[in-house]
Amino acid sequence: MTAELVRGQNHPLSQVRLEVRISAGTPIVAGATIGDEQGRVRGVEWVAHPGAPTLPGLEVSKQAAADHRLAVDLGAMPESVHRISVLLALPSGGGGPVRFGAVAAPFVAVTGLDGTEIASYRITGLEAESAVVALELYRRHDAWKVRAIGQGYAGGLVELLTDQGLPEARHLADVIDEAVSRAHSRAVAPPPPRTVDGDRTRRTASSPEPAQATSPYGAQGPQDTPIPGAPEQAGSPVQGDQGTARPSSPYEVQDPQNTPAQADTAAGTPIDYSHPGRRTAAPPPAPPTAPPARSGESARPVAGDATGWSMDERLYNQVWGMFEDLARTVAAYRSAVDFADSRMEQEIDKALADPRSRVGGRGDAAREAARAKQAQLVDQARAALDRDLSQLAAEAEVVEPALPLAYARWDNPVWHGYRVPMEMPMALRVGDLRLPESAGLSVPMLVRLPLERGLWIDSGCESLDGSFLESDELRRLAMDTAVAHAARLLAVHPAGEFAVHVIDPAGSGAPALAPLLRTGVLAGPPATGAAGVADVLGRLTQRVDLVQMAVRGGAADSLPPDLDTAQQLVIVNDFPHGFDDRAVTQLRYLADEGPAVGVHLMMVADREDAAAYGPLLDPLWRSLMRLTPVPDDHLADPWVGHAWTYEPSVVPQGSQVLQQVLGQVAAARRSWNH
After folding, report:
1. CB 313 within 8 A of CB 417
2. What are phi and psi of 627, to 5 degrees?
């Protein structure tokens, strides 16, 4: 049965050799991009378009047409490819329509080689857009899924390709337009059938063995396989790394007219999509007591089932994958409910447009029929949501116990075996995120280290459940939360690599600071009074200036020998009490310039207390990541923009884990200093 998708909804794919069939009613251009786990398209050589229609396992049409068939072999994709985005665009300069709102809604279907539809999606709601990302095929847990996207771009291919992360978007769009203008009619043949004999895949007799040199994936390992035209890259593929090397020419790709695949096609021989040199990782064995998986049953989730050079990196990427999946599956559910409600209203309005049907049995029957259809659609959407939530919950059950201490809750047993680490982790857990539809399922909120922004623990927030908290109680909770975050930062850094300062002008934070004071992990006693505030801010400001000058001058070895090169965190309590104008200026300077040179800010403050400064402090608040001591729904995800409920990471009441961990940190620091 075909799955009729709505925007944001996904569906599992049970086959690896597929076709993507497109029907638009008017000539359009079809293409595809391939991306890594973070969705990045690393260069123009990662784009299949009419000017370069073939990539390993992927082929698109060379012309603009009302109907397209894109051939896809997911089994031929290297391990570094995690997403395939299908792109549609109206051709420019041909005198045809210039926006999708003027044509019939495009229809996209993913089918097997026999034409059986697996999932379909009609892209509605487009108006001024002239290019659209129709859908994407993406890899999760060694399995592939299809997701309906429907993201349109009024700026056409240039805007779409720029959003895909391609700096050469304008040039590539021009190349595509030129290729479309000179293309001749051509149909894409489906991939040839393959037969399987044990663990070996045999080609059909009509498919010659391709030369090894023409297969860019033939001799590569499964980690980070290069794409044609892209040089090998050193180091691990870390999220956010913009240092990817480029070929000498941004369009240095293999000429499709000279490839063996094109020659075979021209001769009438179908393209061979298999790659004998590519290594395929076998799925992990099931536990001996586990029953065998039934046909059609989802694979058992495995902790660390993501790409990465280390287990920490794989778990980090897996958590982000869970975060994205939860965001999108809830978006699909909400979209389906909105559609059901809108359809019910339209049907009722249509049925009652005739005044004679507004009263009596006909009107009541029309209302009941419309409500029944709405309930049926909502029930179907809820069933799909519950299915996805159960899969994510099963994954969370195996991932949470496997998290390293930097990612783990304070009640995780991993803290009982704590030892001071030898190196800094990738990220730090600062809380949990959940959505109203996902009761009982939360996702760890991880932030990368070293911190790129300071933290603001808002002591003036309101409880999400409507319960009333006294101002003093809220301030105490905010300071407890700040101490828990600071303790975690100290615990995950090697001895001597992280120092904590405290500015507490009135001394009101002393009870919450007791664990830090008793163990002696602070760089010095908390600064009190105006003089103490000026002293700490002056020393940290001077440190930022010295390091900046040394870095810019290329003389890092000329820093004073007594300068502490460790990462510095300053906790500021009860801002702006005890701060004069000079101190406020220094604080803003540290918030803006400090993170780049290892000085980080953690504010415990109520923004209303600083209202007298007016808009002067607005840049300060915007530069900090706002966290709350009680659950609040102020955070949004980067994919859909849901308002997520944030729950802070707190130490269980009565637990001694914080004291024990800080005691070991203090002992390691004393040993390191000696």
Report:
1. no
2. -120, 160
- Tell me which long-range contacts 56-59 makes (C-beta under 8 A, separation of at least 24): 56/215, 56/216, 56/217, 56/273, 56/275, 57/273, 58/32, 58/34, 58/84, 59/188, 59/271
CA separation (Å) from 295 to 110, 292, 489? 21, 9, 46
Contact 333, 384 (CB under 8 A): yes
- Nearest CA-CA partner of 11 in 317, 329, 318, 320: 329
Q: Which of 85, 67, 53, 80 is nearest to 271 (CA)?
A: 53
Quick check: 48 and 60 in contact, CB under 8 A? yes
What is the 3 state secondary structure string of 261-281? HHHHHHCCCCCCCCCCCCCCC
Give the gyration radius of the chain's Cα atoms: 29
**Residue 627 CB burial class (10 angstroms; 0-12, 13-18, ≥19):** buried
> Using N-to-C axis directions, what is the helix angle for 581-593 and 529-552, rounded to 10°?
40
CB 129 within 8 A of CB 152: yes
Q: Whole-model pTM?
A: 0.63
Calculate ∠ Cα 23-125-438, nearest 5°: 105
Cα separation, 674 vs 663, whole angstroms: 17
pLDDT digits (tens, 9 = 90+) for 413-466: 999 889 999 999 999 999 999 999 988 899 999 999 999 999 999 998 877 665
Angle at 648 between CA 643 and CA 654, to 5 degrees: 155
Taking residue 98's Cβ as centre, other Cβ atoms within 10 Å add up to: 16
152 beta partners? 132
Q: How many CB atoms lie within 10 A of CB 97?
A: 15
The residue type at 156: G
Cα-based torsion angle of the residue sequence 559, 564, 567, 571 in order, rounded to the nearest 10 degrees: -130
Find the mean pLDDT for residues 53-63: 89
Strand extents, DSSP E, 36-162: 47-48, 54-55, 58-59, 65-73, 83-89, 107-112, 117-122, 131-140, 143-153
Q: At what angle do helices 471-492 and 510-519 cross, to 10 degrees?
A: 20
C-beta of residue 8 within 8 angstroms of C-beta of residue 328: yes
Per-residue pLDDT reduced to its tens digit, 262-272: 333 333 444 33
Are 218 and 275 contacting, i.e. CB atoms less than 8 angstroms apart?
yes
Distance CA 479, CA 458 (A): 10
Q: Is 484 exposed, middle or buried (0-12, 13-18, 19+ CB in 10 A)?
A: buried
DSSP 153: E
Tokens matching residue 218: 């033939």
Bridge pairing between strands 599-605 and 567-575: parallel
Q: Cα 391–395–400 angle (5° rounding)?
A: 150
CA distances from 51 to 47, 64, 465 (A): 10, 12, 57
